[in-house]
Design a protein that fits this description.
Helix content is 44%, strand content 0%. The protein is mainly α. It has one domain.
């Protein structure tokens, strides 16, 4: 598991949050445009297979991320914090 700490939602950079939203929107069936930074993305269609794809997308962008990093906190805020 990476050492990236959980970032309080109030401190999530809007640019990173937008990038996280874009990544997730390409993978899940539900609309994530109105999802809160702390909303559980499993409720919007992020299943285990899509989670693996998301981890690969994040790694391709240079993120140091393990599947467990998102499995325990599958939120836009967490994804934004993991983006390099």
């Amino acid at each position: 598991m990476s050492d990236t700490p959980t970032v309080p939602i109030t401190r999530v950079d809007p640019g990173r949050l937008a990038a996280a939203r874009e990544l997730v929107a390409a993978l899940v069936p539900d609309d994530v445009s109105g999802a809160a930074p702390d909303e559980d993305l499993r409720d919007l269609g992020l299943d285990s297979i899509r989670l693996l794809g998301l981890v690969e997308h994040l790694r391709a962008r240079g993120a140091d991320v393990e599947t467990v990093d998102l499995a325990v906190e599958p939120t836009l805020g967490r994804i934004a914090a993991l983006l390099p």
